[in-house]
Amino acid sequence: MGAVSAAVTLMGVGSVVAKAAAIEGPILAFHRVWVAAVLYVGLFVAFGGRVTLESLRVATPGGLFFGLEVAFFFSSIQLTTVANATMLIALQPVVVLLFFSRRFGEVVRPIELMLSAVALTGVGLVVFGSTDSPSWSLAGDLLGIGGLVTWTLYFVYSKQARTSLGAFEYQGLSLIISSLVMLPVALLFSGSLDVGEGKWWWIPAMVAIPGTGHVLMNWAHPRVPLSLVSEMTLFSPVVSVALAALVLEGETVNGLQIAGMAVVLGALAVLVRPKKRNSPTNTHEPVAESTTGEAG
Q: pTM of this prediction?
């Protein structure tokens, strides 16, 4: 329980760190993934692992979509409120339920459709309540939707890849692919790979803070019931929003948004219970061990 609590907290803090870094989303995403790739692949090889063309092929779809998701999320959180960016990503279980359940051999029940509608309504309240905030941006919200779509696709392809690759192996190899994807994306949309003077330290901070959270979550998976892990990770956006309101300028939260977040988290908490074997959650960074991931 302690490891899961620490993991959820660190992943929630990671979203605020991404916002505070004030680095263009594609640039931050590129450096975030290549540094993590060097770290994880280095550890994988050091402990006797071997990188093969076949394993890279299997990891490619997940790595592609994770790289794009990180770029979308980091760009979104720079342009809109932390509340909007994190709550949009939190809808991943709803998207998987509505569009990919049949692929996983699951039947969608009417109660699950109702809970999905309730969660979507809650996100609507969060977004509508933020339109007067100085940190709100429609463009940022649209990028957040892009992050939601690509994060969902990452989950789907990761589930397939994990049938033949180990969790740590997949994590490292998918990050190699993410790095290759994000290099041209960062150059195309930002025109540079320079994070800015005095900002390089944010990169290891992004690897260390949310990255450590996901390492702890992977460690906890075989030791803590999956349903409990799923429910606890739903509170990561709450950590993000509360911390952002305390330390970031312009990140105010009003009563309507608080009500909307409560609706979303309540609906998702009920929704993940019957789908506990396949349910994803809302965090930011690649973790191929069942449900947990990070958007950053």
A: 0.79
Confirm if 282 and 234 have CB atoms less than 8 A apart. Answer: yes
Residues paired with 234 in a beta bridge: none
Write the single-letter amino acid at 55.
Answer: S
As a whole number of angstroms, the distance between CA 259 and CA 109 comes to 26
Give the CA distances from residue 104 to residues 115, 165, 272, 279, 293, in Å, rounded to whole numbers and listed in that order. Answer: 19, 18, 15, 11, 19
End-to-end CA distance of the chain: give it in Å, rounded: 23
Please name the residues in contact with 182: beta carbons below 8 A apart, sequence gap of 6 or more: 26, 29, 30, 33, 34, 67, 70, 71
Domain range list for the chain: 2-272
Shortest CA distance to 86 belongs to which of 159, 19, 29?
A: 19
94 touches 280 (CB < 8 A): no
Residue environment code for 113-123, b if the CB has 16+ CB neighbours within 10 A, otherwise e: eebbebbeebb
Per-residue pLDDT tens, the chain, 296 aa: give them. 677 778 878 988 999 999 999 999 999 999 999 999 999 899 899 999 999 999 999 999 999 999 999 999 999 999 998 888 988 888 877 887 778 777 766 677 888 788 888 888 888 888 788 777 777 888 999 999 999 999 888 878 887 887 888 877 888 899 999 999 999 999 999 999 999 999 999 999 999 998 787 667 656 655 665 445 555 666 788 888 889 888 998 888 888 888 988 888 888 778 766 544 444 444 444 443 444 445 56
